[in-house]
Amino acid sequence: MTQFIYCMTYNMWYPEKTDSRMGVNELVFAIEEAITCHELKVGDRLPPQRILAYKLEVNPTTVSRAYQRAAQKGLVGGQIGRGTYVLGNSNAAMFAQAIGASDGLKINLSINKLRCDDVILKLNKQIETVNTLASTPQYYEYICNDLVLRFQRAVSQWLEACREVQFSEDQILALPSCQYALQMIFIRLLNRGDAILVDEFTAPGIITAAKQRGLRMFICKGDEQGITPEGLVSAVKQTGARMLVTIPSHHSPLGFTQTEARRRALAGEIRRLDLLLVEEDIYGMFATPAPISGYVPEQSLLVSGFSKCLSGGHRASFIASANPVLQKLRDNIVETAWLVSASAASHIITAIEHGLIDKAVQHCLAELKRRNFQLNKRLGLDLPLSSPHHWLANSILDISGLKAAGVDVAAASHFSVNPLEDPLSFCRLSVNGVDDETFEQGLNLLSGFVRKY
């Protein structure tokens, strides 16, 4: 196995291979590993491609392809005059932030991720025990077509049972993550300069993927439930955009969930306007209404996975769609199938077939309600009990003081499509990424920074 020595030469990071010749995958791994280990920090520039190729004694095309692959994974981005630099919204960067003791953080309530507590750990171990593929060579090989088909079938069944939406198994595309799915949709279906419609505040991964592809993002005005039908119609008329990208369930970062009536109304306008809907449903299993895609499946791409309820480490997500455009994405299945491992796919298949994902969802939902009840009681608020995160104004919470006291919360600028005059006017507070002791410490600190009137 290739090992890397990370070094800084003239304030520039370089990976130095110690044995075999470095290829595209090895270089992408080195970049991701360096971000995780704090060797590369958010905003750091990577070496120019030709200089790095010369230093590693490889073809410049190898470095160029590695940088492109790293950009597709959300690790890096590029701008004219700035070169290639590390982005802050990749999994590696967020993980480095979450574990980084070097920055002096005491409590991190900014990262919204699944915490593998005793119950989730027990469920995953149970899945491993009953996973019949785990004792075969196939478990350790590249995923085969039969396993891909089993994954598609299992996901189709789960969507009908859990999300009350019907997609046949041939309308499911297996992918390693929701973020990869977004990047793939933008790269394969859109051209640089194309316009897309988004919520005023949306997921950082959507913003990152759109900027990497060079797309123009336009805001659909909305209310506490997110986009309104009137706002959608107005935005389409003004921009001519043909794609809407939204998160209707536990909207990030607002935390609200659209009602069934709102979803049906939006679906009607999407059909009338002949738009393509990209719906991120990663928190949908914690919400009651069916996805918008269920009301307009022929014009939707439903993006979801199981990293928020069962296992973030098993990277097996999906796109579900009845739109013919799914075939255009499926044409690249060789690339995507290599990125979904047989072990991850079989883990998810086993969890669905044995009803263990349902148990994981029920447990996570109970934990969210328990913690949000504590949060509301301690702070005197009335926040949604099933939401994994909340959007709090500086008028309610002294955000600057809270951050100075050692609690890291995600500022509004992290989710805003357009620059904000006051980046700390709002913040997102996540409740499910830390253990009970850390959460209790966070509550104690939070209670001291609630503004009293």
Description:
- The protein is of the alpha/beta class and 453 residues long.
- It has three domains: 4-95, Winged helix-like DNA-binding domain superfamily/Winged helix DNA-binding domain (Arc Repressor Mutant, subunit A); 102-116 and 358-447, Aspartate Aminotransferase, domain 1; 120-356, Type I PLP-dependent aspartate aminotransferase-like (Major domain) (Aspartate Aminotransferase, domain 2).
- It contains 16 helices and 18 strands.
- It has helices at residues 24-36, 49-56, 60-72, 91-99, 118-130, 145-163, 178-189, 204-213, 229-239, 260-273, 325-330, 333-339, 342-353, 356-379, 399-404, 436-447; strands at 4-9, 12-17, 76-79, 83-86, 107-108, 172-175, 195-199, 216-220, 222-223, 226-227, 243-246, 276-280, 300-304, 317-320, 389-393, 407-408, 410-411, 426-430.
- The strands form six sheets. Strands 6-14-13-12-11-7-8 form a seven-stranded mixed β-sheet, with helices on both faces.
- The chain is globular, with a radius of gyration of 22 Å.
- Residues 1-10 and 101-105 have low confidence and may be disordered.
